[in-house]
Amino acid sequence: MRIARNLRIALPALLALLLAAPLMAQDASDDGPNIYPQLAARLVELDVPTLDVRTDEEVAETGMAPNATHIPHGQIDAIAEFLGDDPNRAVVVYCRSGRRAELVVEAMRERGYGGLVNAGGYSDLTEALDNAD
After folding, report:
1. Does residue 51 contact residue 82 with C-beta atoms inside 8 Å?
2. CB atoms within 10 A of CB 67
3. Which candidate, 82, 132, 80, places its Cα nearest to that of 109?
4. Which CATH architecture has domain 2-131?
5. What pLDDT, in 10s, does the model give residues 73-116?
6. CA geometry: angle at 88 spanning 83 and 92, to 5°?
7. Cα distance between residue 50 and residue 43, in whole Å
8. Would you list the domain boundaries of the chain?
9. C-alpha dihedral sign at 23, 124, 89, 54
10. pTM for this structure?
11. What is the pLDDT of residue 132?
12. What's the rounded Cα separation, in Å, for the pair 85 and 38?
């Protein structure tokens, strides 16, 4: 009960910060938007589903973040099926640099899904998860 209550309190605040992060970023790199993997790591710690949208080869080379589901970024229908019927379902999305994750977030927003957040690159997210308290 206490965990559910804490999630109801913390999750909206974290989602708001993550959704606002690209707007607050002053320095976007060529590989994609400047995001905040530390905030995404907190969502992952709260058991928010995580989606790896890299290629099969990239996943085979490095593995995935803990408890992530792998669906390559071009498989938009499969991603929509993964998200299910809740258009506000929170999901953390990452790729190699954040660019493909952003494309997925944009494509899903066009379909009415508003809860996806771009965690950026795999190495940034896993580093943030390793450093999380």
Report:
1. yes
2. 10
3. 80
4. 3-Layer(aba) Sandwich (3.40)
5. 999 999 999 999 999 999 999 999 999 999 999 999 999 999 99
6. 60
7. 9
8. 2-131
9. positive
10. 0.74
11. 79
12. 28
